[in-house]
Amino acid sequence: RKEVEQDPGPFNVPEGATVAFNCTYSNSASQSFFWYRQDCRKEPKLLMSVYSSGNEDGRFTAQLNRASQYISLLIRDSKLSDSATYLCVVNRDNYGQNFVFGPGTRLSVLP
Amino acid sequence: DARVTQTPRHKVTEMGQEVTMRCQPILGHNTVFWYRQTMMQGLELLAYFRNRAPLDDSGMPKDRFSAEMPDATLATLKIQPSEPRDSAVYFCASGRRSGTGYNEQFFGPGTRLTVL
User: Fold this and answer.
1) Residues B48, B81: contact at Cβ < 8 Å?
2) Nearest CA to CA, how far is B106 from chain A (Å)?
3) Most buried of the four, A23, A74, B7, B30, by CB within 10 Å?
């Protein structure tokens, strides 16, 4: 079993839809969590950190459930430009920055 | 706008040749990472440095790969000899602690390596 798991998708949704991704992690000692976005043939870019209390950034909402060891990302009012692969990232060691990346979930927003 | 830079962006070489990839981290970042991304394996950590000292290179095949930071502005990843299975995109990232106390990593554009 991989340390960080995600549904690879693809998720094909119409513009304006709300879409949610989940990610599970197996290391209960994991310290911090992130969502990265990767466009085709580009580098991953930080989308948002995931805080214990949950956090929102515009149309994006991230939630963390430590008891069940999962992280979620909700995208509201999806845009064509949201089409990308979304990578769930778990930091095993908050001091050492030992990041483990999930395989990613591919999203296609259709006109 | 500070960015991580990597050279070369693309490299095609023949099996058995030496490959050197270079990375310039963002000024002021004290951690540097090398990752490899393939369709099959996704993004894998090869090695990382803090304050130029290697902290973890357990993800790297030691017999052919080596990573160094000769100074704070340059990180290198070498493969010698290269093999077709090394074909992948190699990303360098540099990291810092954010204002909220979380560690963040910023990726370079990657080196797309093809070994024939």
Assistant:
1) no
2) 7
3) A23
